[in-house]
Amino acid sequence: MHAGSRGTRALGYIRRLMSPVSSRLDRRRDRSRDAVSELKKKPVDTQRAWAEARTLIWQYRARLTLGLVLILVGVPLNFVTPKTTQLFFDRVIAHHELPLLPWLVAAAVAATLVNAAIGFTLSQVLGVAAQRAITDMRKRVMTKIMHLPVRFFDQTQTGILISRVMTDAEGIRNLVGNGLVQLVGGLLTGVVAVVILFVLNWRMSLFIAGLLGLFLVAMSYAFRTLRPLFRERGRINAEVTGRLTESISGVRVVKAYTAERREQLTFARGAHRLLRNVKRTITGISAVGSFAGIIVGAISAIMMWVGGHAIVQGHLTTGGWVEYGFIAALVSQPIMQIASIGTQITDAFAGLDRIREVMTTPSEDEGEAGQQPVGRVRGDVDFEHVHFSYVPEVPVLKDVSFHAPAGTTTALVGSSGSGKSTLISLVMAFNHPGGGVVRVDGSDLEALRLHDFRAQLGVVLQDNFLFDGTVGENIAFARPDATRERIVEVAKIAHCDEFIREFPDGYDSVVGERGIRLSGGQRQRIAIARAILADPRILILDEATSSLDSESEQMIQDGLRRLRQGRTTFVIAHRLSTIRSANQILVLEHGEIVERGTHEQLMALDGRYRQLHDRQYRFELNRFINPGEDFTPEPEKVVMPKGDATETVPRL
Fold first, then answer.
1. At how many degrees (to 10) do helices 318-359 and 80-87 cross?
2. Which of 156, 221, 257, 293 has the most C-beta neighbours closer than 10 Å?
3. Other residues' Cβ atoms within 10 Å of the Cβ of residue 311
């Protein structure tokens, strides 16, 4: 295995997930296999999106109902100004009824003030409801994501998941906020206004009704066209965000390989894809707005043409025409609202579509209610004729059987791709056997509750993940309620305390994103301290000392020994000091155990283990390295004359 491959081995078992070769009455295995295909294959489902919308509306029905009541109160007030204006022209101006004027002014002012109060109350009531709905939705999506199988994360960009949680959830503001209520209120006002228009002048209203019908047909078509564009925009935005996240996270690799220009071009291509989508969306929205403006203009033209003839012929008064104009404006207002709010609601439905894909993806712990809870395990692990494949008909593990008694250490040795990390992933229940059984304390691992079981695991990887918090918070990650005294105690065991106390803020020092402010060895020792504090019953050490130099490794060997005491430990390591003390060593090749035993037994067997050992340890006496890893050929010796004697020197 090359150095680059060795650098990724630590995450190997969470980068490879199974596609089962056997149904085996195991629904959890099926959920793990289908999680990503569920996300990729689901088409746009308008009916399901409407169902999600109805669920949201019902959940916040109290506030929405209050909003609708306020809207209903405000609808009659919208007609106060048209009526007072008509009376002003036809009675105050035409017939000089001045005593009526104060009452008309008072009615207009009162209606305006009440409408303003209703608008303010709506903003407060529905604005809070919208923010609460967004927060609740984000929490629901985040909770769901945290319970999805590891395979889902392996095949889904981080940016896509961030977009689902943050951006798509934002769109529901228009469903449970002002948008939907204003749209309903506008439509209700429009319907009432159309009825009044027919009462005032049915001939003129027939033309207007025809225009409104044409507008509604056009809006229906526009929304069906725009919704896929909004959906595609969300997908492109998530992809671009994901790539940007990778570029920033891997900026050191980018700079080391002078790949800045390539990353800029990759981002630019994604940004331009997003731009093309936005341009098409803007074109569609602009067309909707322009068409709405044409409809409003056509209504005005009809009013002048038909209304003018009606006034001349005596069928309509000047005040009645002005009233008709005000009420026609109330019809035009919901038309513009449909054009504006309707596109926003369409965007919200597209976001609900994407959220639905995540929410309906099978979780890895679904159906666990009927499974047996897990108490404190002893750590007795049995593999019984286990088979496993990532891809059907391409086996990775073949008929693997072994017993790891509680409290013992099992080391895994073998060439790159022999199945070591896959075997570990089965122990951690990240993958599930395609055949055979993995037992813990005699119980089938598939029948145990994942949360209960994993709570008793401890993991130290080659590339350990630290969160952007303090040193103390990272050590206490598995036990957030741990006291500072206990944190310091385990830090001393892992030989972290020495360098932590040199920091200006000690245990309150911030480590940076992924622990970037620490050296590789410091991150490794903090990870070991974290595992000690977790007090696991089953411990996974995947090249746990690979980031340490010989001096640092020697410092924490005692800590590792104390960590392993009384715990079932599985080790993938290249350091002889770790492997020699194992109770059993399993040598894997091509997914099969070809040799097993202690170090002394395998050396005496003179087989594959001895071959690997002898090849690698000629030059690095304290490392166990697989073929192809950091292997420097032995210099060829030549004999050179030196006077009457000869001297053997290596050829460089």
1. 170
2. 156
3. 14
